[in-house]
């Protein structure tokens, strides 16, 4: 079966990816100590341990992905910039620059724009105020269907602008109405409860999933790997598919891992307390896949 490349996938084999290394985002313990409270981290990450965690995480990516781009240090970026998925959305028609719902992250899309200009990546458009939209609130369901969470980080205006940008390409944007949960100061994205790992397989946390969206997946014959309540806070639902059912997740979620393995997944874990758990960003948040390779058969 001939493979083809697209950006409209969350499960295809990643051919190129963008990351913001810990050394370029966290920078030093002094920077961490200055910023963590205002950014609403659970506590101050340990810089040395964070660097160790990130090197292991990065080595997993290097073993599986051909091309890895790195965002450089920038003095206008803070700790949150390590979660580089949020500042953009990739499409086959050009990259969409987001407008961050978290005020302290407003400068990140301009840094992605610099990256695009340097690497000759076309830009389709940008979400403008009063619209807000973050990449963690979007996930491709299929090549012509993009799910977007309506959250405290992604508002109606942002979703409306996204739909307008994609309308010319006949891309269906499904709005997923997410709950209040812990309120506007907490990080709660669509991908906090939904991580596709193959064409029709996803890791989900159903208690916070809207019925209409969950039924949409079931109507499409998706298999849902359920995350138990005691593994949701440890980010069991945040899973990156490096290729179909070849996944990386945060260590410490054994029930979820067992469910993934039963679904035919290979699971590679990393210790992520400092780079993931404390800042609320798992492996999907730490990466912005740029190009994936898929076949018509999906798995295998």
Describe the overall structure.
- This protein has 300 residues and is of the alpha/beta class.
- Helix content is 25%, strand content 25%.
- The chain is built from eight helices and 16 strands.
- The relative contact order is 0.19.
Number of DSSP E strands: 16
Strand content: 25-35%
Indicate the overall shape.
Answer: globular
Regions with little confidence, pLDDT below 50 for 5+ residues: none
Using only C-alpha atoms, the radius of gyration works out to 18 Å
- How confident overall, as mean pLDDT? 96
Helix content: 25-40%
Number of helices: 8
Distance between the termini: 10 Å
Strand arrangement in the largest pleated sheet: 1-16-2-3
What structural class should be given to the helix and strand makeup? alpha/beta
Topology as a string of helices (H) and strands (E): EEHHHEEEHEEEHEEEHEEEHEHE
Q: What profile does the largest beta sheet have?
A: 4 strands, mixed
What features would you highlight for this structure?
single chain, 300 residues, four-stranded mixed beta sheet, alpha/beta, 25% strand, three-stranded mixed beta sheet, 25% helix
Gist of the model:
This protein has 300 residues and is of the alpha/beta class.
Protein topology:
Layout: E1 4-6, E2 13-19, H1 22-25, H2 29-35, H3 47-64, E3 67-70, E4 88-89, E5 95-97, H4 108-118, E6 123-126, E7 138-142, E8 145-150, H5 156-167, E9 172-177, E10 194-198, E11 201-204, H6 211-219, E12 223-226, E13 240-243, E14 246-250, H7 254-262, E15 266-270, H8 273-277, E16 287-294
Parallel strand pairs: 2-3, 5-6, 8-9, 11-12, 14-15
Antiparallel strand pairs: 1-16, 2-16, 4-5, 7-8, 10-11, 13-14
């Amino acid at each position: 079966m001939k493979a083809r490349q697209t950006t409209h996938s969350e499960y295809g084999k990643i051919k190129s990816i963008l990351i913001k290394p810990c050394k370029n985002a966290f920078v030093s313990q002094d920077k961490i100590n200055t910023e963590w409270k205002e950014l609403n981290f659970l506590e101050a990450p340990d810089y040395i341990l964070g660097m160790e965690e990130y090197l292991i995480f990065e080595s997993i990516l290097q073993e599986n992905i051909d091309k890895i781009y790195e965002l450089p240090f920038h003095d206008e970026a803070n700790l949150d910039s390590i979660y580089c998925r949020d500042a953009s959305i990739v499409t086959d028609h050009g990259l969409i620059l987001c407008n961050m719902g978290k005020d302290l992250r407003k400068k990140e899309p301009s840094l992605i724009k610099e990256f695009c200009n340097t690497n000759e990546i076309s830009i389709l458009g940008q979400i403008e105020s009063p619209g807000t939209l973050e990449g963690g609130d979007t996930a491709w369901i299929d090549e012509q269907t993009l799910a977007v969470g309506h959250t405290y980080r992604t508002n109606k205006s942002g979703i409306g602008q996204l739909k307008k940008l994609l309308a010319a390409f006949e891309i269906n944007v499904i709005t997923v109405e997410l709950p209040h949960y812990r309120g506007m100061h907490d990080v709660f994205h669509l991908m906090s409860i939904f991580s596709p790992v193959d064409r029709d397989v996803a890791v989900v946390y159903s208690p916070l999933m809207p019925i209409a969206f969950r039924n949409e997946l079931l109507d499409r014959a998706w298999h849902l790997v359920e995350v138990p309540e005691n593994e949701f806070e440890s980010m069991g639902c945040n899973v990156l598919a490096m290729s179909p059912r070849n996944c990386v997740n945060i260590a410490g979620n054994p029930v979820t891992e067992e469910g993934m393995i039963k679904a035919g997944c290979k699971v590679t874990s990393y210790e992520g307390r400092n780079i993931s758990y404390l800042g609320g960003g798992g492996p999907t948040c730490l990466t912005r896949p740029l190009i994936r390779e898929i076949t018509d058969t999906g798995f295998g």
